[in-house]
Structures are given as structure tokens and as C-alpha cells.
Amino acid sequence: MTNFSYQVFSAVIQKGTFFQAAQLLNVTPSAVSHSINQLENELGFPLFLRNHNGVELTNDGKTVLPIIRRILNTEEQLHQVADNIKGLNDGRVRIGAFSSVCINWLPTILQHFKDDYPHVEVTIFQGTFNQIIAGIHDGSIDVGFSLLPIDDHLLVEPLIQDPIYCVAPSNFVPKDKKVVTKKDIGDHRFILQQIDYDRDTKNALDRYDVNPNSLTYSIDDQSILSMVESRLGLGILPKLALKKLSGDVHIYPFDKQFARTICLVANKLQAQTPSTKQMIAAINAFLKETYAQQLLID
User: Fold this and answer.
1) Environment class of residue 66 by beta-carbon count within 10 Å: exposed (0-12), middle (13-18) or buried (19+)?
2) How far apart are CA 6 and CA 251, in angstroms?
3) Nearest to 153 by CA among 174, 131, 166, 137
4) Paired sense of beta strands 190-193 and 155-169, if any
5) Which of 87, 152, 229, 261 has its CA at 20 to 30 Å from residue 241's CA atom?
6) Does the predicted model carry a pTM greater than 0.85?
7) Alpha helices in 92-220 (DSSP H)
């Protein structure tokens, strides 16, 4: 088995068809098909189910996927170490981030990183917290942002505490005009993204006895503000998510403070590649400049 066979395997997964994988690798579709057939013969089992829409992994294919990605990532690490010796003139970093990090942090981080390392290829995957952790595990993401707790054998750096607030329409005023209490919430509905009904956000809603039947789900954070502005309910959002959103709404803290802990997460092996190591350094430099005393890392 050759690394080219593994690259073909990875390209087919990425593109979903032999034809598109061939275009990505700049080879013929027959070369892709031959390489996959050869790999399947050497392994002794089929890797893909073929259909008219393309291909999908068999269960056995899903089992070997993380192993093959580790092989490719190790090869990439070798090349990046060599590049580091030569001056980091090549390489790649694949970043996984959730929405508010993509909007508020990554533009500045990537601008500074590209100024210093213009030849390093950077790609972004935006997903849920669980998708990002899964990508770190299977090798498709080099470094990501997620939330504590993470019960995994990964490199995890807590970054900041991100307070959680109540978002209210303009006609809503808490009884003491400062903080939202259980009495203020009453039978109001809460609007949030379904993926956020977990961890610290769920803890906050449970603290105020908000019934799951009183929840309305929205597709993104700006839509939550628009629905709150229309007086369809109260919203619940962390501070970072609110930074670049707009609407005729009021933001109030709860009478009990809630916060999520944003963390940096990476596979310990991938974190040692030169380009990933420099990206982590760029992230930490940005956060130290932006948050100063709030930062949880040294």
C-alpha cells in the first residue's frame, strides 16, 4: 500500500465521487478507481458502497478512516518539520470553530498569521462543539475551539470565561431593572439554537425552571435577536455571540452568573507540527492582547 492510495481514499471521502476526487488530485477517474480497488484488495474488504449518487463508506471503511488519516497527518508532520528547518515556507492548518469564534476572533487571528506565514494554507471548518471534537479525533481538524468539559485524551487549553446573558425585547424590564430573576421569567418562552441547549446554557435554563416545552429553536444567533425583537420570547446568548449582533433588544445578566468556558483543543501529535504550533501561538497572542486579565492561560 502506498501513500497515494491513502490520498485517493481521503479525496474520495472529501468529494463524494471518484470523478471529483480525480479532479482534486489531477488524475483520471480510472486511476482513482484502480487505486481504490487495489487498496480494497490489499485490505481484504470493500471500503465504499457505490451508487448512482456517488459513494459512501462501508462500516469497515469507517473503521480504517482515522488510521489512514493519522498516516497522512504523520506524513504531513514530516514535511512540516522539514519546512520548519527551512523556514516554514509551506504547510497547512485546518481550524475547527463554532459561529461566534468564526465571526469575532478568526478574522484578526488569520490576518496576522497570514502576514507572518503567507505560504501556509489555512482552511476553516465551522461546526458544532461535538463536530469539532470529532474532527480533532479523526485527524480532519488540526486545532479547534470548543467548550469545557472535554473528557478526552487531547491537548486542551481553557481560554476565557464567556458570560451568558438574557436577551429581552425593548418592552421587557426586570423588576429591579438590573438583573433577571425567576419571577421575571415567569411563563416567557426562550429562543435559542438547538445545539446550544446543552452544558452551561442548559444549566442556566434549568436553574430558572424553564421547561423544554417552553423553548423555541432558531437557526442562528442573529435570528434569535430578530425573534426577541418581535416579542416572540426571551433569548439566551453568551457575550461573545452578542458582540457583532444588532437589534432593538435589551441585554440583562441573570441574578446568578452563568458562563461557558471556551477552550482550544488539538490532537497532541498534530499540535507539534510547525504550522499548527505557530497557529496556536498566534491564537494565544491575539487573546492575550484582546482579553488581558480575563484570559485563563498564562
Assistant:
1) middle
2) 51
3) 137
4) unpaired
5) 152
6) no
7) 99-104, 106-116, 129-138, 182-185, 199-207
Contact yes or no for 144/137 (Cβ under 8 A)? no
Q: List pLDDT tens digits, range 256-271.
A: 999 999 999 998 888 8
Cell (9 digits) for 220: 442562528
Over the stretch 94-133, which tens digit does the pLDDT of each residue have?
Answer: 999 999 999 999 999 999 999 998 988 899 999 989 899 9
SS3 43: helix
Tell which residue, 107, 102, 93, has the closest CA to residue 141: 93
- Residue 179 phi/psi, 5-degree rounding, is -130, 155
Q: Which grid coordinates are listed for 5?
A: 492510495
SS3 category, 257: coil
Q: Which of 117, 135, 200, 213 is nearest to 162 (CA)?
A: 200
Give the list of residues 6+ apart from residue 266 with CB closer than 8 angstroms, or none.
136, 142, 143, 144, 154, 155, 276, 280
Number of other CB atoms surrounding residue 280 within 10 Å: 18
